[in-house]
Amino acid sequence: MATFTYFALNGFLLGLWLVHIPTVEQRTGIDHAELGRLLLLLGLGAFVGMRIGGKVTDRVGVKLVVPVGGVLCSLSALLPGLAVGQWTLGAALLIFGLGNGLMDVSMNAHAVVVERHYKRPVMSAFHATWSLGGVAAALTGARTLSWELSPATTLGAAAVLGVVVSIVAAKALLNEKDKQHVQVTGKRKVPRRIWVMAVLAGLVMLSEGAANDWSVLHLQDILDASPEIAALAYGAFATTMTIGRLLADRITAKAGSVAVLRWGSAIGAAGIATAALSPWIWLALVGWAIAGAGLSGTVPQLFSAAGHAEPGAAAANVSRVAGLGYLGVLAGPGVIGWMTHVVPLNIAFLLPVAFCVVAAFSAGVLRTDPAEERVAA
To answer: Which SUPFAM superfamilies has this protein been placed in (predicted)?
Structure first.
């Protein structure tokens, strides 16, 4: 239950920022292209936070790092709401990314420990609560926007709530430092498939990032939806992702992780393409909902496979896959923002469609190969 709590909190904090992107963009006086460049700092901060967090978590244990990450992520979530220009927003997003990265990798490492004891797939269920946090954020954001509350007020309240929840839930975490940490001599070798999974995570998470960062603006700018209706684009994506992840563990147990990654990526591509090419608001919402359902089980398969590859370095391997995944989030907003100078925003969505297709054809990497050669980290 503590693990579920941290996943839900992280999804809520990030989701609440996402639904306030149009408001913050207007308040700071920046355009889509500049926003795309600033969002690179959020991904960069997350990448650095994950790389540091992975090493620290394996060394000192999840029981300490998870609540610290939760507190830092909660406090830093307020900062974008206080930004008044591009420089302050950039700094705020970098710090928020650091807190989010530390919390993300540590809570996923703890989820690997819980799944190992549970002895059947449960990773998708944890990620479902992350999506559930996003749904709650979308609904909360839609309501507070209709009340015309400032981003600082809403994000500030969320920060206080997050700090309290992080401290209270810490008591129920498992202390697995001795089992997680393995002393190694010399230069540790990393399975080649870890890096392949990391690249696929980058492609899939870029596709998720397209929905996270641009779906709300897509409905507003391309289909002329109101801010309240546009916020539901992310809500539709997060809702079906939650339902899909609640079902994904059972599907994985029967069909296998390869099938979940392959077919999920294919369905995700179809959903994003539908949303991008739709001339109607309702069909675009359906498209984002399909995309959420398809992509729902993909990232958990990659994280789980990385965490179980080497139990003594679970957090470090998760940080590699999640870190390169966030490089996708890092590159995605900037690339799509740049593409809006050349093509409309909806046409730019065809890039993540192509990446989902690549992930679908590469899903076989999740098959375990005991004889696999290793390469230096």
So the answer is: MFS general substrate transporter
